[in-house]
């Protein structure tokens, strides 16, 4: 018989000060404190981290892959949002 | 580590939706990665679940033969390295179970499959570790073979699996070196140590070659895995790469491969090996290896003994939740 | 053919003796924890216990290294070629792992002592000890956190986990008196400011124990007679078996390199 599941947590690790936390993987733990300890013991064994976040996996709301075109493609044509869209005389130098 | 899961035949079901499947294949052909919420053919999902979970089981079962020597490691330096390595195997099992979970199977479910004997794991771990030289040989050969298998998996079409493999390959880079270093030390040591090294090589060489799975001529299935870019090289290609890399390493330290037919083919630039005993391979996979029962019995015992701890942690979490709610009310 | 022993004798000055005591504590407890690898209740805990074991083995190596530099031996000679009667570890460290609750109770009781010990030792008049202590303290602080959190969960988890945790505490309590023992060689080091006085750590240890046991809904065992002997090499029966495994390769291949 399959036993009662222990909740799944997503682990985010900040590798250096100044960088954002980045998804590292997942752990199973019964509560947040145990999840934090497990995350430390599993994902920072080689000096990978200075800070760890754990988030219950079921607390994450993700966009639907079927919506990808609707959500993300329209921005592709807004090239005027990028600095290279504009021309500045060479003599002016870096701007 | 070990991709023997690809060597079981997948029943190919009728295409669920040919147009969708064609779009899916086009993404794969374009080297796009498939992510957990993306649509995927059921057979792709099943193949991955099976391969990833069996890969994970191999890591977990693989902790036993090496763990067998942690308390007997012959120096403090070796003890720390071996402990760290076996710990890594556990970590790798954990990463892989997590990758399988993104496909909708819980760790509890796949653990059940392992414990009940329904799931397979790499046949190599059904052999016993008899001397310290076995620890060197496992690191050198078994991890060496695993690396050959795993590096292409870092580019596997399924994102979570590929990412887990990248992490695993990075962490495992020390495993093979620590194994070979043990072999070098033994080979340069006393006559008894050198004999120990040769004996271990004799016992592990053929099972290591079997890790890559049956020869391409006998392999029924992996076309689909190749097409889906789960697998990128054939069994024989990987086996040959492994042999070509390993034979010179053995010769360098004065050890001999236990294969009278082994010879270098000047024309092809490859080392050619004698016949592999595929009957032994099939027998070990089917349960007839020296340690199959022992490994599974041990895993079941550990799991059963830990049940009250996992229950306690859940019970405490439940109590804490109730206490917090009470306070809030 | 003459048969000679592979055992070595160590010239135990007070400082060497004390370093061996701490090194042996760390090695033997690390060894015991390493027995959990692949056998823990969860995969996450397999990794956690191995981390602690690795920290402790690392501490023992630093301490053996320093002791060895004072008596002309290396870490492996000290670890692999002293007999049980020459081992100086606390008896609690060599006790059987028992179930997970027993292991956690042992780790908790020991860490609650050794973490403040290392914190004090950071201001040792001996610079090497101070440096070893600074590194060790960060590690043992986490060991204490880890063991405390588990003890709280086992104590306040299910009826079974509570019973097991209480049994583990009762089993190990008689070994805690040894933490605070001071003999003449240690006293000379305390007087010189080389090591902390364990007697001064007792109150802090005791109140830490009370705090965590209260949260764990566990009962503090009664103080009665306390086990002793580890510091002078009078061990429990378990140490001989540990050393038989630990030392067997070095002993059966004298002079070989590994």
Could you outline the blueprint of secondary structure elements for this entry?
The complex is a heterotrimer of chains A (95), B (329) and C (258).
Chain A: E1 8-14, E2 22-28, H1 32-43, E3 51-56, H2 68-72
Antiparallel strand pairs in A: 1-2, 1-3
Chain B: H1 18-29, H2 42-67, H3 76-101, H4 107-115, H5 132-153, H6 159-187, H7 191-210, H8 223-227, H9 235-252, E1 263-265, E2 270-272, H10 278-285, H11 292-328
Antiparallel strand pairs in B: 1-2
Helix pairs in contact in B: 2-3, 3-6, 5-6, 5-7, 5-9
Chain C: H1 14-34, H2 43-71, H3 75-80, H4 91-94, H5 100-121, H6 127-155, H7 159-172, H8 184-191, H9 202-215, H10 238-252
Helix pairs in contact in C: 1-2, 1-8, 2-6, 5-6, 5-7, 5-9, 6-7
Gross geometry of chain B: globular
> Looking at the structure, what is the overall shape of chain C?
globular
Low-pLDDT segments, ≥5 res of chain C: none
User: What are the segments of chain B in which pLDDT stays under 50 over at least 5 consecutive residues?
Assistant: 1-12
Helical amount among residues of chain B, as a percent range?
Answer: 55-70%
Question: Using only CA atoms, what is the Rg of chain C?
Answer: 18 Å
Distance between the termini of chain C: 26 Å
Reading the helices and strands of chain C in chain order gives: HHHHHHHHHH
Helical proportion of chain C, percent range = 55-70%
Count of domains of chain C: 1
**Helix vs. strand class of chain B:** mainly alpha
Question: Strand count, sense and closure of the main sheet of chain B?
Answer: 2 strands, antiparallel
Largest two-chain interface: B-C, 44 and 51 residues
Number of strands of chain C: 0
First-to-last CA distance of chain B: 51 Å
Strand fraction of chain C equals under 5%
For CATH, the homologous superfamily of chain C is named as Ferritin, core subunit, four-helix bundle
**Total count of helical runs of at least 4 residues of chain C:** 10
List how many beta strands of chain B DSSP finds. 2
Mean pLDDT of chain B: 93
